Amino acid sequence: MIKAGIVPEKKIKEITKRIIKDSIKSWRKKKEIKGIDTSHFVLNLISPYERLVSAVIQSCQTSLGTKFWENLIKEIAHENSFTICDNKDFFQPNTSELNYIIDQWKTKREENKTPISLEGYKKELIKEIKTNSEKFKNVKKIKPKKGDGLDIFLKKNNINYLFEIKSPHVNAGAGKDYSLKLMKMYHHHLFWEPDSKVIVQIIFPYNPFEVDYDVAQKGRIDPLIRNLDYLVADDFWKFLSGNDNCMKYLKEAIIEANTEFSLYEDIKYFIDKHK
Questions:
Q1: Residue 2 above 50 pLDDT?
Q2: Considering just the CA atoms, what is the radius of gyration of the chain in Å?
Q3: Which of these, 110, 114, 182, 227, is most buried using a 10 Å CB contact count?
């Protein structure tokens, strides 16, 4: 018997296999028409084969990007009774009136030695929005500026979930940028719905390191707080699917899909073609 609120192994694997197969096959079809740039003056002279392999893999990796994860998240969320909202319904208010709160909290989080959650920020933001409701009633909705939008917008049990998907390989100081990103997302949502329940988080869909993610990225991810500001790998997939083994099933499904649909051959095709 399948428990309510848990996406079963069979469904997780079925969804994952279909999406990874479609993603790789679509990439091959497009690249057969457009081609892949494998040229590099220096490396072609020093290590031509390795350069070729790198170019093909990079092309496929870029094609997968966050779209693979976006599609996977949406379908698994749907199976667990989340409502998939249209990102086009996420608007930025055409005003800078509350930017001072964002600036104050940006400094507070970055300079404080002890991690500070965004709960105080949200409360202060909501208070100002409600206090100035009459003043803000004519503010227009506009499309978020580039970089200030979101990747995934879900709803369940009257809670809004706004997610931004990021590569787990982060640059030094990225945590500060992500912290600001989260504050802007809270601002954009709460400006229109100050009474709504909302959780905004950065999602790292997998952990590529052999140690705990926080250890591997120590210093780079500050001032973000794990499980409040961001979720990593198992923690995220458990939440989304309700299945404690979801991450394990994702890995197994990708390996099985490679065998069943000869996905490696789609990549090898371009390597052989450009030899």
A1: no
A2: 21
A3: 182
Distance CA 31, CA 28 (A): 5
Q: Per the structure block, which two tokens stand in for 192?
A: 């229109």
pLDDT at residue 135 is higher than 50: yes
Contacts of 110 (CB under 8 A, 6+ apart): 176, 179, 223
The ranges assigned to domains in the chain are 1-80+246-275, 84-241
Mean local confidence (pLDDT), 97-125: 96
pLDDT of residue 4: 53
Beta bridge mates, 226: 230
203 strand-pairing partners: 165, 231
Q: Which DSSP helix (H) or strand (E) runs through 231?
A: strand 230-232
- Whether omega for the bond prior to residue 194 falls within 30 degrees of 0, making it cis, is no
Work out the mean pLDDT of the chain and round it to a whole number: 94
